[in-house]
Amino acid sequence: MRTASFTPIKTAIPSPGYVQAASVPGGSKLLFVSGQIPADADGNVPDDFEAQCRQAWANVFATLEAAGMDRTNIVKATTFLADREYRGVNSRVRRELLGDHEPAVTVIACDIYEEEWLVEIEVVAAATE
């Protein structure tokens, strides 16, 4: 499925790897993935942020795969960071894992449900049926 990502002329120019919007063709199957935490199947949570970020993305990808989708189906990603200091690593890891795929993205610094979690990621994905 091909989504259209774009940035309107009358908005602020985003940083590289950031798009203002993504559209989905009519009749698409939508998948709303709840916030994925940085824990593996056994409940283990890595100590450092980068490893937590990679684990949360691994959980996103596993959920997409279970629905017959992959990273290219993501149209919107929202990342919750426990601290603004993680935004650079978060951006680097996201760009590495998504490659040339650029969904709409929002990053929010906030308190996260469990104190040991430094990141949580939710996505919306779409596929043509």
Notes on the structure:
The chain is of the alpha+beta class and 129 residues long. 23% of the residues lie in helices and 30% in strands. It contains two helices and six strands, in the order βββαβαββ. Helix 2 links the parallel strand 4 (74-81) and strand 5 (104-109). The termini are close together.
Count the DSSP helices.
2
Strand order of the largest sheet: 3-6-4-5
Separation of the first and last Cα atoms = 9 Å
Which class do the helix and strand fractions yield? alpha+beta
Q: Mind describing the biggest β-sheet?
A: 4 strands, mixed
Summarize the helix and strand pattern as letters: EEEHEHEE
Kindly state the percentage of residues in helix: 10-25%
Strand content: 25-35%
Q: What's the pLDDT, averaged over the residues?
A: 89
> Count of DSSP E strands?
6
Please tell me what the overall shape is. globular
CA gyration radius, whole angstroms: 15 Å
Low-confidence stretches: none
